Amino acid sequence: MKRIVLNLKIAVGALLNFKLRTALAVFGILLGTFSLIVVSNLSESLTKKTQMEIANLGENLLIVRSGIVRRVGTGTRLLSEATTLTVADAGAIVESSRFINAVSPSSNKSFPVRYGDITLKSVLIVGAVANYSEIRNFNVKDGSFITDEDNRDFNKVATIGNKVAVELFGSENPIGKYILIYRVPFQVVGIMEEKGVDVSGFDQDNQIFIPLNTFLRRIVNKDYINNISVQVIGEKSIPVAKAEIEDILRKRHRIREGGKDDFTVIDLKDVLALKTETMSMVALLGRTAAVVAFLIGGIGILSIMILIVNERRVEIGIRRAVGSRKRDIILQFLTESVFISFSGGTVGVIISFAATIIIFSLSGLPFTVSPSGHIVSFFASVGVGILAGIYPSKKATKIQPVDVIRQ
Amino acid sequence: MPLCLLEKVKKTYRMGDLSVEALKGINLRIEKGEFVAIMGTSGSGKTTLMNIIGCLDVLTSGRYVFADREVSSLSDDELSVIRNEHIGFVFQNFYLLPYATALENVLLPTLYVEKRRDNAEKHAVDLLRLVGLEERAKFRPNQLSGGEQQRVAIARALINNPELLLADEPTGQLDSKTAVEIMSLFVKMNEQEKTVVVVTHNPNIASFAKRIIQIKDGVIFE
Fold first, then answer.
1. Taking an 8 Å Cβ-Cβ cutoff, which residues of chain A contact chain B?
2. CB-closest option in B54, B84, B92 to A407
3. Which of A10, A321, A407 has the CB atom closest to B47's CB atom?
4. How confident is the model over B44-73, as pLDDT tens digits?
5. Helix A313-321 / helix A268-311 crossing angle, nearest 10 deg
6. Which domain, by its residues, includes A29?
7. Which backbone phi and psi does B90 adopt, to 5 degrees?
8. Predicted TM-score (pTM) of this structure
9. What angle in degrees, to the nearest 10, is found between the helix axes of A326-363 and A268-311?
10. Can you give the residue range of the structural domain that contains B132?
11. In chain B, how many domains are there?
12. Which ipTM value was assigned to this complex?
């Protein structure tokens, strides 16, 4: 231990003669460590976020939407509307497919909502049935969700999203109060839990649920719907179930072979997978940058170590004269190059930690410190130090005391 | 047995096509406890002889036995161990490490001892006191005078308690008054039963030794 401390002290003294070069070498390793850790933290955080979203989605969920829906980036866009999807379709799906547990037809449209003096110009009104809450894994916080009776009797009751509740009622208790949805009075019977933004960026707390039948008769006056949430029996069956649903709906909608579908079956996990893919591209880029930075740092260390060995020929000769063996010399210079590399790594860790805090507090992503990122960058900086030190230290052992001490 | 026994030692340097015979068959016996001066002009081969005696260089032909070991058959590592444990070097240019303090310089050889002693630091301080530099333990070489630097070098040479002290022009960089002080230290070491070999071209310095060997053109006269 004492030996290492003394040797390092001597090394630092020698390095101070090459401040700029040392700084550059250290900086390369610093950048490598920095980008490696930040990228690891970020991608781990995004994975966590994705997992949270998957858990939020509801288990083994497929969504049938009426019309043609295109994926735009990670969001979706309705390209053409259709008037063919019905509640009967939902019933047919659950009856005809062995891979489906339950279906929940629903339909939605935005309307202004009013309570007292406050008017919200555009809130998504969802006509839903009782099992929607369970299938979409979206529960009530207070009161109750729409029931089968509500739906059967065309009741004018509403379960409102958390954001709607806050905006309309403030600190008042909304349950039992009446709100106006598109001039129709509804009694609030429940408030949904907070759910946040979904995969496509839609704020799920800014919606109001009313019975589907009420929605169709009293609000939109139509007999077609635009959504069916489908719960598949297991994750493995999702592709089969999707194909079956498509089959059933094509038959029921009398779409001929080769004709265009007037509906779209969406697996939200596909959307998430796409998102993960984009993310892993970013991670790959970051890691490539890290490798390049480590390479630059390594070459920097290599060059500075060669310089140092040349600069300290006399020192090496003295050490050899007083009894250091070749392996002591190798060990000494390897320690030095690892030391340079590792100090760059340490500064990199500190800076990346600061950057991580800033990035996470700005982006609102879940705060994550990736242990693997730190472990990999630790070994990378030590490894680069060793690799860069091998050649110079071998070179150092070629120096014999008689070569330097002879007058 | 003598401490150093050289028989028909030859050393040839190759410089391209040219080969220079620096030592032309040296026979030399140095007993334990002797104080020997090796004298010669520059180019006489005295530094080469010192390098051979100090196990810093290998011979071309002949035989060298140091402390009962056949030196020519030893590996590079074994030579390092001999230099570390049995020989203390003092050079004309002091050769202290510039980034280390006096104390750290004295401790340098202890870094390479296989079985390290726990009290190395105390021993180093004792040696600095012996050479009269106890107060300067934390000084760096560039804060010390030439004579002081050479004292540090002597303390370094003594740290592993070697049998042989080997000095190459130890006073070459010093004024005559300081030179006398340094040589007195060697005399003192010799009185404490260390074998001392000093290589010099200066008769005044050689006169401190009990035995003087002349070397000329790679051959010795006594």
1. 2-3, 6-7, 9-10, 12-14, 314-315, 317-328, 400-402, 405-407
2. B92
3. A407
4. 888 899 999 999 998 999 999 999 999 988
5. 70
6. 2-53+273-405
7. -130, 125
8. 0.72
9. 140
10. 4-221
11. 1
12. 0.93
